[in-house]
Write a structure and sequence with these properties.
The chain is mostly helical. It has six helices and no strands.
Length: 90
């Protein structure tokens, strides 16, 4: 989404909707959990987490976890919570 205008991002925010579960999955992945760890945390199978990730990638038009996290935070779909290391550097 780098290089997109504010109008494009605002329009995407209105049209892209992640489900509650997709947000939960993406938040766990953003914290560094593997698909298996996210599945265990959510009491679902790894296949279910991978299914949610595929839906997230499709909705955000990205190809991997890092791109999904960056796009979702840029669009305000999930909150960006800096780590304690990032807070100390600021």
């Amino acid at each position: 989404m780098a290089g997109y205008s504010a109008f494009t991002i605002e329009r995407a925010q209105r049209t892209i909707r992640l489900t509650k579960r997709e947000i939960e999955v993406l938040s766990l992945i953003a914290q560094g959990c593997s698909s298996k760890e996210a599945a265990d945390s959510l009491y679902v199978s790894k296949r279910t987490v991978d299914f949610h990730l595929a839906n997230i990638y499709d909705k955000l038009q990205v190809n991997n976890r890092v791109q999904a996290f960056r796009a979702a935070t840029r669009l305000g779909l999930i909150p960006f919570e800096p780590t304690s290391t990032q807070l100390r550097e600021a």
